[in-house]
Amino acid sequence: MTVEGTAARKPRRSSKRTSASASAHANEPQLVQLLNPEGERVQHPEYDIDLSPEELCGLYRDMVLTRRFDAEATSLQRQGELGLWASLLGQEAAQIGSGRALRDDDYIFPTYREHGVAWCRGVDPTNLLGMFRGVNHGGWDPASNNFHLYTIVIGAQTLHATGYAMGIAKDGSDSAVIAYFGDGASSQGDVAESFTFSAVYNAPVVFFCQNNQWAISEPTEKQTRVPLYQRAQGFGFPGVRVDGNDVLACLAVTRSALERARRGDGPTLVEAFTYRMGAHTTSDDPTRYRLDDERAAWEAKDPILRMRTYLEKQGLADAAFFEELETESETLGKRVREAVRAMPDPDHMAMFDHVYADGHALVDEERARFAAYQASFADGEVK
Amino acid sequence: MTVEGTAARKPRRSSKRTSASASAHANEPQLVQLLNPEGERVQHPEYDIDLSPEELCGLYRDMVLTRRFDAEATSLQRQGELGLWASLLGQEAAQIGSGRALRDDDYIFPTYREHGVAWCRGVDPTNLLGMFRGVNHGGWDPASNNFHLYTIVIGAQTLHATGYAMGIAKDGSDSAVIAYFGDGASSQGDVAESFTFSAVYNAPVVFFCQNNQWAISEPTEKQTRVPLYQRAQGFGFPGVRVDGNDVLACLAVTRSALERARRGDGPTLVEAFTYRMGAHTTSDDPTRYRLDDERAAWEAKDPILRMRTYLEKQGLADAAFFEELETESETLGKRVREAVRAMPDPDHMAMFDHVYADGHALVDEERARFAAYQASFADGEVK
Amino acid sequence: MAVQKLPLAKALNESLRTALETDPKVLVMGEDVGKLGGVFRVTDGLQKDFGEDRVIDTPLAESGIVGTAIGLALRGYRPVVEIQFDGFVFPAYDQIVTQLAKMHARALGTIKLPVVIRIPYGGGIGAVEHHSESPEALFAHVAGLKVVSPSNSSDAYWMLQQAIQSDDPVIFFEPKRRYWDKGEVDTEAIPGELHKARTVREGSDLTLVAYGPMVKLCLEVAAVAAEEGRSVEVVDLRSMSPIDFDAIQASVEKTRRLVVVHEAPVFYGSGAEIAARITERCFYHLEAPVLRVGGYHAPYPPARLEEEYLPSLDRVLDAVDRSLAY
Amino acid sequence: MAVQKLPLAKALNESLRTALETDPKVLVMGEDVGKLGGVFRVTDGLQKDFGEDRVIDTPLAESGIVGTAIGLALRGYRPVVEIQFDGFVFPAYDQIVTQLAKMHARALGTIKLPVVIRIPYGGGIGAVEHHSESPEALFAHVAGLKVVSPSNSSDAYWMLQQAIQSDDPVIFFEPKRRYWDKGEVDTEAIPGELHKARTVREGSDLTLVAYGPMVKLCLEVAAVAAEEGRSVEVVDLRSMSPIDFDAIQASVEKTRRLVVVHEAPVFYGSGAEIAARITERCFYHLEAPVLRVGGYHAPYPPARLEEEYLPSLDRVLDAVDRSLAY
Ligand SMILES: Cc1ncc(C[n+]2csc(CCOP(=O)(O)OP(=O)(O)O)c2C)c(N)n1
Ligand SMILES: Cc1ncc(C[n+]2csc(CCOP(=O)(O)OP(=O)(O)O)c2C)c(N)n1
Ligand SMILES: [Mg+2]
Ligand SMILES: [Mg+2]
User: Given CB 3.0 to 4.6 Å as the disulfide criterion, which of A73, A261, B67, C265 pairs with A204?
Assistant: First the structure.
């Protein structure tokens, strides 16, 4: 922030302020990394992971299919089949790595961008598209995959996650909860309150922050002047920053945090340092606020590319695997495309459904009046 | 928190949780202290202060008079002259120390308990009593002493303080702002947001948290599992814990934080570790939730007593000083008592005043109708 | 044993106790609800008997309280949340309006949010700022919430039972100035429906509709009016969302005159909704416009002015006179 | 030069520019208001021209935005805050209701809070949840706030000027689906008073009252009704607090029939307040009860249902017919 356009200023303060903001960049901490951008395995003293070739290929497959699904959704939006799409392009490793760390009985609270996590949970991808098409506000049953509805109000879900985790603790279960949120969300009071509650009640929850460097047009410096993972310490639980484009590291770090939660040691904050490769949503125009260079630099760190290099170099996957995956991707794309196009508009009366579980006299009255009003057109009574 | 009364529990988790909560107490950090409970000056490597005998006596006098005023208010409440009183008993050092660190052009945002700070600002003590008597909601002009109105909604004022400090920075002034809040308030989202905003904008604000160990009936462990001053670090600014019953340390630490703010280095969190000796307010009954022992232990750390011991041992004040102060105290008590008793009830029409600065048609209409309605009684029209 | 004379606050306490005893999923949570028993002692003794795991002292953060209550409900619990005073519900407003109210619809009915939010409300107790407000309209306007308020001990006991049993979020407004008023509670009675109004005094000349703290006042008004030969019917609304318009309509079709009384500011208050809808339903029956008596369009005043601010016997009688003068 | 044809969003942009140019104390703040120019481009180009110190990208925290705006106002600034969408104002609700609205009264008038909160509101743009709501009643009920909404480019320009110049907090609702509608703006005209309604079409059979996005719809209704030989008067309310009841009364005394139209849910909405008060003022003039057309008591529906949810030409005409049938 510069100081411009106001009266009497002392340059002393303004120069200080600029330097303070610059220092946010200076002390970037070490990321936990197990697979570097060149596709080489690196060792980490604290976190390690030993996966079978099948598991490694599985992670790669998840990322590729997620990206394919995401691309299909983006193009469906361009074709007018969806009103909006929030792409996860670039965040596949963060989502697949953390998503695959979860047990079936763990419960997930996503934002609106966790398509990769949904994939890991076995949520039918077309389910995710209903709200973006405008036929519902989510509408899937969270209990069937322990995957909560997308939450649009920034940060609100972190408290739901904390409460759910408090419930798990009450039940004496060793399940855990993961709450996703973004770098921008870290500024919301609700997120801080979820840190307080989870720490005080020692709730088994992992806060998984995908720092994709941007909150729409605002860079992370507008939300914090120190790395986000450090936020946790002042609430009494550990924070760790992981290379969010490294699926292995995301898996290892999340798994460890979940185990901590299961052990009864309470919350952990994981900051996955990644990048939103695309626009915020299809409504956004990032050329107004960021430079192509930045994107290019992050392209070199692509999560899928590095995993492919690794699989190939290590001979863990052969050409047939990649070809098969290509076909699978296309099939997925086609299936999603067809499912979306076939998705019916909701019945008009649906807007009166599920306002209440136990009913409400006014809703009944309005439903009846609306039905009569609509019927009047059929009868030609009202023009 | 213990786990009781629910079904299937794994003792593993519950035992862990208990121990985590216990550890909050284990690692209590070193307090900044310059005057110990025995009234001896101790040295601190980072903070020191060199005050003249007059200044030292002045601090003592401030504390004594503040306590006297507070006691008078408590007894006025008992006599029915006030509807409520929030006593600061035990927190005199925290308030006088920080209050005397301020310059006249610094701006203060208090909670509802900062009677000692108000005293330092030269706010007429009777001004503070209006809201507790129920004749206004505060009602003094914040600008006359740069002392904002008491804020009852917990934590809300920390954002006002941050905004005010952002304004100071815009003006290029080297004034600073201090925001008071309690240990309980530290849990409010607003306080976290004020940390975020002040850090991002590098605003010249000092957050002064009086950790008096209690938020009504809840001990600090219900708000945090690590010392509160540590909260700041994760937002990118320093936190320091000071002996809140040591007026010299409170003065030194606050002064240093204010200087940091003036230098353009942004916010600081000061946690004054102190104790609410009395009830939360005159409506509260602390015997329901805390033991007499605790109070007794803190009485030994009384802020006024230790200062008196110091002054006496060092021969900085003689008997005449203490006697004179006694008289001054009584005069103050009398003045406050009389002023409160003489405080008139507001005119009935006052409830329509100052709802808006520029007027509002409905308020005008309701005012006129109310006046007519009241007049009708005088005329005997309506029974 | 089943019938006891209890202060309203104690009836609520008993109701919470019954709920905690009956359903292991019921939780009580809020600031100071534990050892202190709440600032009004509504939760007195509950933590001692049910443990810290079911009667939970929370951090001082209302959004956190309601937000975690939502999470607990998703896990199968039935949290009963206490907001310490009316004026302190606003930090939780976002969680209530955007999450609690809408999540059932968002999930197309697949999840339920049985969360009760208890709010001591209203004035008349000589309190400082933020401790005497009546924000019910701010909740009743929001679809997905139900909003109720008992006026007496029996309703306090039973309506709270019903609110806790409801699968919908209920904002439960407690008339704090009536906490100490005693009334009979029959814990084995069959209660009336939660969202039905109740005629608490029959009359033929004019209908007074009130809820919560104003019901008692309206009964006093009716008594005074009776002395003057006017027969005033008093309807205890009990539920501000939904509103039992059928009951009001039936009364107004008989009396042809309606005055609505509440402590909340009249402007955009519940009286407006009642006036608008009843006028529509009873257009040819009304001899006078529906009149409203309530707070003024001003912040709740300091205690020494609240008597003037709040509806009083005289102010309601004045409205009755004005209505009858048509 | 002084008269231009501008889309409503651009008129707001020009108004902000004028304010920033005229008064060095005016600030613009909010999420993405800087380089992006806001998600609707209302602040487009302002940061480039006035600097980051006056057009401020804030952290993503609405309570923080409004809370710091209050602090800035106390320091002598005049912040104009942007809330990105209607549904995201609720995290700031506590600061707005308990602080912004009441601080002037709390200080017995010694301080002023000239803060404007701009909120793009309403539906009809095919958006996802929380992006199409009309929460104006939740602000109008609160004393200490003023609540306005322009319906066209000229009012957008001038009402925003006036809101910024006002020493009271103003909640400024912008009809987002009209952002792209063009209209003439005379930047040298003498504007009407901020809180006065305006008759935008004269008529004699029935009065339609609307504001913001619904004014255009009501003008269409009036045109269709005219073809059927019905003379409908349309009043653009412009201010929801205060409400210019005198103007509505004058119209209704002439037409004897009133229909209020808004997107917000009818239940406890602004139509209730208008109906209640106008019925009281015009009891002997009204030939029919005041009818209301608005949203249903349900969360704002998914985009594919919004056409059914929102007042439409047919639904308003239906109400007009029903009113005239009395
Ligand atoms: C309370 C609230 N305020 C504003 C918005 C509008 N909004 C939607 S996404 C977004 C940015 C979120 O950034 P971040 O948390 O970093 O997540 P990302 O979109 O980058 O994944 C904003 C401001 C919102 N959804 N909710
Ligand atoms: C938002 C809000 N919630 C609840 C309250 C009721 N209340 C008043 S004081 C208080 C405890 C405050 O504790 P703390 O912050 O430690 O300050 P202290 O009173 O100990 O000085 C509570 C819960 C309030 N005033 N505001
Ligand atoms: Mg982001
Ligand atoms: Mg405290």
Answer: A261
